[in-house]
Fold this protein.
Amino acid sequence: MYFIYSFALTIGFLILLPRFLWDAARKGKYAAGFWQRFGHLPEFDAEGKPVIWLHAVSVGETNAAKPLVKEILKNFPDYKLVVSTTTKTGQTLAREIFKNEAALVFYFPFDWSFVVRRALEKINPSVVLIMETELWFNFLREARKSEIKIALVNGRLSEKSFKNYKRIRGLVQRALANLDLALMSGASDAERLIELGCAAEKTFVTGNIKFDSETSKSDLTETLRRRFAIDDARPLIVAASTHAPEERWILESYRILRDKFSAENLPRLLIAPRHPERFVEVAELMQNSGFRFARRSALTSESDVNADLILLDSIGELRAVYELAKLVFVGGSLIPHGGQNVLEPAAAKKAIVTGFYTMNFAAIVQEFLRTEAIVQLPQLAENEIPVRLNGIFNELLHEEKRRKRLAENAFAVLQANRGAVEKSIERLTPLFEH
């Protein structure tokens, strides 16, 4: 079965190889760290200490890992930490936020046994922590052969992923047998994992670490406030982690909003696309909208203070932006993608709006809805979305009491559910002591 998996992986790689080579010529995201992905990792000094290898796929998992890393290094100072990511954006962020904690930040290896062995020999970890649910079958098997302790942390398993894994249940069950621990964020996630074959005695619900996100203010917030002259006269709407074609619908809703405000009080709109490769595409869309437009990545200009539209084409700055918002729309939810993280704007105590499709955060959104901590659109036809979105924006901008109540309720949900990091450390401690 592993041979069939590796063969399929090889075929897939060969098919995608022209894409990798073309991307390499353009220095794009797929070619980033290409040599490292074959297990050729930089030298690092473990100083004779045992090593913890933490794997975080992309930006979301990397941000979520921050409070966990802090507690691990506080509780187990005799270990060295290394961090891997899969995506270029995750790598960029990890290098920034773990620059003082990690002895090495690198790209996760391709999942061929010989590549995995090369990477494991280089890192020589005692413990591997995998954020959320990244099941790389050869990696898990080779780590187990090397007697390395392995744990899933903040594990999530959506209904969609569960159905996909069920198609290869035999292979998944073998992979899960290599785990020492599976610390899941919710009861439904744990139940699905057990149904796939993970031993119940190894599976625990420790809560969602994203509830433990830091809420401290950033100096960057004030830098952005000054640069774009953001104030209450023209309140800021933040459209966060958007996917195509959400930007088009959001801009159309903003165009309708213009008719309900004077020029002096027209709210401003900041759009932060989820994927950096779409920055240029979204910039063109915003520039051709007829509104005054500014880009975060551009040189500071006098026109920044008057821009109606702002494009956040940067990595790792969204949390700082939330502090400036009057209300936040969380993207990936107007389309069947499944939604993005609503906890970060909740931590900033902001009113949150989301679309119908929030399957990726179903339990969290249900709790927010139960406590009146979020506004969720119903399932809509595409031509209905801009009008309904505009209606909600307009209502929340004019109804200060409702907006503040939503924000306070969202923050209260966040506070009530903290403690996942502490529970995770408690479960992980035997692995480190071993």
Summary: The chain is about 45% helix and 15% strand. The first helix runs from residue 2 to 25. The mean pLDDT is 93.
